[in-house]
Amino acid sequence: MQFLIIALISVGIIAAVYYWIKLRLARTKDSGDLLAELEKEATKLFKHDLARDLVIIAIKDGKVLEHYQSKNQSPPKVSADSIYEIGSISKVFTSSLLSILVAENKLKLDDTLENLIGDRFELADHIKPITLQQLATHTSGIPRVPKIMLNKLEVMDNPYSTFTVDDIAEYLKTAKQYGKPGKFDYSNLGMGLLGHIMEWKTGQTLDALMKAHIFDPLDMHATGFSVSDENIPLFVDAHDPKGKTTPHWDFPILGGAGGIRSTASDMIKFLKAHLDSQTSISEQLTRTHPDPKSDKVGLGWMGPTFVERFLGNENLIWHNGLVGGHASYISFDKVHKTGVLILSNKAMDTHVIGSKLSRAARIHSIKH
Hints:
With about 375 residues, the protein is an alpha+beta fold. The chain has a domain at about 35-110 and about 205-365: Beta-lactamase (3-Layer(aba) Sandwich). The protein is about 40% helix and about 10% strand. It has 14 helices and 9 strands. It has helices at about 1-25, 35-45, 90-105, 115, 130-135, 145-150, 165-175, 190-200, 205-215, 255-260, 265-275, 280-285, 305-310, 350-365, and strands at about 55-60, 65-70, 85, 240, 245, 260-265, 315-320, 325-335, 340-345. Helix 3 (about 90-105) packs parallel to helix 8 and helix 3 (about 90-105) crosses helix 9 (about 205-215). The chain is globular, with a radius of gyration of 21 Å.
């Protein structure tokens, strides 16, 4: 009886604190200076040694606010043309490409692996009915990285560099049931496989497909899976969570899951394309968006989580990225016409700070 009373009191206290914080957040006033709010959050990251060379972008009502900052250096080392690894944000490009190819009637969302690659690979029975839509929404039941591939992670500072197509083939042939199809389970292999399927069915590399269907139409000419020799000076160094310089990650096989490198300038164009319908591919991009009111993910994109809803970001669509020495975050809210981008060359969790910045972009107005 005493335990029950204590439990009830504890639940009551937690609920009271939850609603008190929720009320405080709801009463946050517009500071009238969104850029100052971005700078304030950036300062906190540097104060806690969570950043080295940082880019924070906010879009509100079509206007772009940009903040660049480097640790112990002014002016900052980085600019809109600095090149970062965007990690898993690559997945939304891969899924966007799928949406475009579907619109061109080159693929269908309900195409199965058996029909698409059954003549190329021997497939385990439970792999055969997996669809492209399931790969793009992380509901295929394929694990993040299967054990057969984890055993090859010999180079931990560049882990995906050792994978081969033969590893994918071996998994598809011998895979045991891992997750239940239809249930969300984030998968790097699933998204990487999706990229390869689009290559195999079109006869073009993923880089060439993205260039023709996404990068060129949006004038994202500094974005791709590799960095040209002339742009190497713009490719910012990578730092692990302790601040130690670390190699850039390579994705020779699973590039569709995390291999893209880009700039703030290019990513702003991509973000804008999701917020308006003025580009040639905006309609296809919109088809990748999840419904923020449901608990389902979109094609590559995530909808609002508990954290977002708690912060009042009920309409947020987002994705983050993390590799060995870079981190990224992108989000947009079509209802409030806002967008946020974070590029960092120190490995860190960008989800919470991204959610806070997305909230700031929604609440605070731009100083005139």
